[in-house]
Structure formats: structure tokens, C-alpha cells
Amino acid sequence: MAVRLRTGLVAALLLCIFIFSSSATAASAAAADDSVCTANDTREECSAAPLDNESSSDDDEDDDEFLATCVDEHDDCKMWSDSGECDANPNYMLTHCRRSCKVCGIIDSNDFGKPQQIPRSNDFEAVKEIVRQSTEYMKRINEDEKYEAVRNKCLNQHPDCSLWALGSGCDDNPSYMKQHCAPACQSCDHILRLDEKCRPGPDAKNAIENGGLDVLFQTIIDGAKESGYDPMVWSRPTKMPDDDGYSKPCEEDVTNPCNVPDGPWVVTLENFISEKEVDTLKGWGSKLGYQRSQAGDQIIDVRTSSQAWCTARCYDDPVVAELRTRIHDLTQIPEANSEYLQLLQYGEGQYYKQHNDFIEKHVDQLHGPRLLTFFIYFNEVEEGGGTRFPELNNLTIQPKQGRVLIWPSVLDEDVNAQDERTDHEALAVERGEKYAANAWLHLRDFQTGFNMGCDS
């Protein structure tokens, strides 16, 4: 009887611990939980301290007039803004999505990053004061033309920024806090200095110059042929008879096969990556954990695949290092110009709708725009999963183990300008799974700026 009683007490105690632990975990994970308030929470218990100074009726009228003009005219403005469209499509976005693009001012803390969580604890008033001060600070920043270039970067990127900023939090971990919690730390000056530091100087070295894209692809194709990668040209610019000394008839010229459509370069290679390398990279994807893919920095329905970034130990893996070297040897683009490999997983029904790999804001950054996409297929897909180019008569390349698909994101005549013809989409996987990797090669050194904390 005593044994059963003790057993029952132990079980009850364990159950209580489990419930308490589960509740604590849920509370810390959910912004809307009763244990925390958000900066603009309307609940009575979350309004003990005002976030803004009392305003006069005249100020209220000014605010009403301001709010009437500072609006998003489309339901998807916030999603587009988070995906980088304010920079990529300014003519539309800065007119029709004024609030999401932050071109008309600061209203509350939601306008400069993640809504801030305020714990209902001894820190309640202190955190609210941080948010109030942040709001006033960001209003001043928004009115100062000096910060125009970094207003979309001077953000609280975590809901706990204001909590972490208490005391000496901003100075205890400055490399993270001053960059990722700039409003809470009032450190937009740091963002501004970093932005200036992350712009290319007069000595910045480009991998190629204007007019060099054709030579780059001809080099890739010739090297691939010598290495036995069976290159196939699916699209290429019209070739002049004496184009760079390549004057063979089309039947003999692998860089200019007969009957190839006129357009941007689109090339495939076969057997570029071995089965061992495929297994290694898929293994790293599993270890790192595939997460829902993003378009820009926002999870949206335009893209439903999963991804993992091959950084740190994955990047330094000898098998991965050998693959990186092979990409460099073939393209003659320095390894430092490459982003970390993006490992991809598509399940049944998953896709990535039409998009372009060119990102406008990269042009003025240290690393410059993406020159090439070097897309590596890990496996054949039972049905679906092809890569389609809608602007190239729906040219579609099917996945195959070891196959590489290469295309440019820029124009030959201007390597800082987007080639809209290379818009593409990952068609939905209809049956089976699709595994692949992206290597994006930039005009200039990517790794140095990335390690400095530059925007990528």
C-alpha cells in the first residue's frame, strides 16, 4: 500500500513538473500569452504605463491627418515589404505601400521592427519605458535625412529586444544588440556606419566587367567539356561570326549548337557532383534541420520548400570544400564570391513561384549583385519538380542526380542590371521528393562582408 502511495505521489509530482515545464515553454514562445504584453497591447492590465507622452487635441488632429495619408493600399503590402519589394520595386511600393515601406513616419513600435513583448513582472515598467524611448528616438531618426538609407535596417529584429536592452544589455553584447536591436539600443548610428563600411570602395574588384558574361559562359562550357560534364546549351545570345575567335560551325561548336534559341545563357552539366557528395550534403541538411524556406526574410506562400544553410562545420567539411573548389575551378570566380550553399528540400505539392534571383539592393553593397545561379540537383523526381523559365518559352529543365543548371541574373552589357528574362520557378513536386542546392556567385567578395555583419 505504501509503495503504491509513494508511486502515485511520484507520478503526480512528475505530472505537475511536466505541466509546469510545458506551460513555461509555451509562455516564453508565444507573444500573445497572458504572461507577456506587446508594446501596443490594448488589455487593461497592459496599460499601466503610457508609451507616449500625453498629446493635445491639436496633436491628435495632426495624427489623424497623418494616419489618413500613411496607409497601405493593398493587403499584401507588409508581405511585399518584408520580401524586399520596397527596394526592388520602388515606383509602386513607395506610392501604394507607404506605411510598410516606412516612408511616411513612425506611429508606434510596430513601425520599426518586431512588436515588443513586455513581461508582466518586475520589469514591466522598465521595458515599457524602453519602448517609449525607442518610439521617440525612431521618430527623430525618421525625420533626419542622414538616416534615409538605413531606415529599413534600423529595426528591432526580435520581440525581446526591449527586454534585453535593460541595464547594460546593449553594451554586454554589442555586436548583436546594436545591429539587431537598434531602436531599443538607440544605435542607428552603428547601422549607418556599418552601411557605409559595407559599400564597395574604389579598389573593389569585380569578377567580370561589362561585356564579360559571354566569355565567362564560354569558359565554363569549354572547361565542362574537357572535364567530361557533357555541357548542353539551352539558350544563348546571338553569336556573331567572329565572336571572340569562336568561328566553328554550329555542328562542331559546343558553345553555340545549332537551333538554340536567342536569349540569355542557360546551360546544364551532367555528373558534376558525385553520389558521395550528394549523400554528404543531404546528410548535412538533415543534421542542420530543414526549415521553411523564405522569400526575402518572410515566410510566404510564394515559396513552400524547406531549406538549410551550409555554414560552419558543413562549410568546412572536406567533401563540401572539394565541391566549392570545383565550382571555382570551372567558373574562375573566386570562392569568396559565393554565398553559403543553400540546401533545399521539396516535398509533394511544394513549389517556388516565378521570381528572379537578382536583388536590387545588392548593387550598392560590398558583394555586388548575384552574377550566376549554380543550381545542383541531387536526385530525379518521380513526377514534377522541374525548373521552368516562363520568359524563355517555358523552357523546363528536369531534375537529375548530378545535374547542374547555370544561368545569369545580370545582363552582359551591364553586370549591375537585372536580366528579367531569367525569371524562373520551381514547379510543384507532384510525386516523390526533390533535393537540391543553390550556389549563388556574386560580382564581388561575399564572404568578407557577410562576416563583418553586412546586409546580405
From TrEMBL:
Grouped into one coarse class, the protein's main location is membrane
List residues of the ShKT domain.
Answer: 70-104, 154-188
How does the protein's chain sit in the membrane according to the entry? Single-pass membrane protein
User: Which cofactors, if any, are listed as required?
Assistant: L-ascorbate
**Domain of life of the organism encoding this protein:** Eukaryota
| One CC-aspect GO term | endoplasmic reticulum
Alphabetical UniProt keywords: Dioxygenase, Iron, Membrane, Metal-binding, Oxidoreductase, Signal, Transmembrane, Transmembrane helix
Which N-terminal stretch is annotated as signal sequence?
A: 1-26
Q: Where in the cell is it found?
A: Endomembrane system; Membrane
Give residue ranges for domain Fe2OG dioxygenase.
Answer: 337-443
* Stated name of the protein: Prolyl 4-hydroxylase alpha subunit-like protein
Q: Which organism is it from?
A: Skeletonema marinoi
Query: What are the leading ranks of the lineage?
Result: Eukaryota, Sar, Stramenopiles, Ochrophyta, Bacillariophyta
